[in-house]
Amino acid sequence: MNHINKMPRHLTIQQDLLKKIQSGVYSQGQLIPKECELTEIYQVSRPTVRQAIQQLVNDGYLERRKRRGTIVKQQKISQEFTHIIESYDSEMNRKGLHPKTKVLTFKLDKANADIANNLQINEYEDVYKLVRLRYAESKPVVLVTTYLPAKLLPNFINNDFTQEKLYSVLQKMDFPILQIRRKLEVLKADETTGDLLDIEAGDPIFYFHSIAFTNDRIPIEYSISKYRGDINSFVFELNHAS
């Protein structure tokens, strides 16, 4: 009877690893032990360990990373901002995820041709450049570079955007965001973006160009957002034309 009920070793290892992933022993984004360590832990051959790991990769629980090892795969965050005007913090809080913002750059700059065109201002006009790295829990999710016309926003530089929400500040300054136009591309992360978002250079990123309009359809914000491809998905809502 024991022979009939005996489970193949790779399935036993697979189930044990899955239990450790689901219980948080190996948390999302964390490296699991190397194959050579797992052969010692489970007292089996490397092909047996490799078979167990491959099945968990196939099932979406693990992911192999070049030069790093095998990590517990992140669960995707479903982003609904594509059809709702809502702050990043509000959306993350609504999903039960703790948001955090790190401000990498906040300064006065000069508009290049692309920025000027999108904000409908003259080239070389003063703009505020705000670069934020935004987290859900401890994971970097999106790198956002935002440009705003300085002539419309006196004293804007005094805001602390690690704490303040951009759209709340604009609302207080009588520039409510009433409409947003977004364009989506999928690109490969360069080395700098990869380092900031904790992904490999060459990994896919969702690349959004957004223009936010206030009263009288004045463009008040132009943002370039780079979302990690591995932990983000996007919800688009389409309505039948009347």
UniProtKB/TrEMBL annotation:
Domain of life of the organism encoding this protein: Bacteria
CDD domains in UniProt: WHTH_GntR (cd07377)
Pfam family, one: GntR
InterPro entries: Bact_HTH_transcr_reg, Chorismate_lyase_/UTRA_dom_sf, Tscrpt_reg_HTH_GntR, UTRA, WH-like_DNA-bd_sf, WH_DNA-bd_sf
SMART domains reported for this sequence: HTH_GNTR, UTRA
Keywords: DNA-binding, Transcription, Transcription regulation
Domain HTH gntR-type: residue ranges: 7-75
Transmembrane segments: none
One BP annotation, GO: negative regulation of DNA-templated transcription
Gene Ontology MF: a single term: DNA-binding transcription factor activity
Xref: Gene3D superfamilies: Chorismate lyase-like, Winged helix-like DNA-binding domain superfamily/Winged helix DNA-binding domain
This protein's name: Transcriptional regulator
Naturally occurring in which organism (per UniProt): Gilliamella apicola
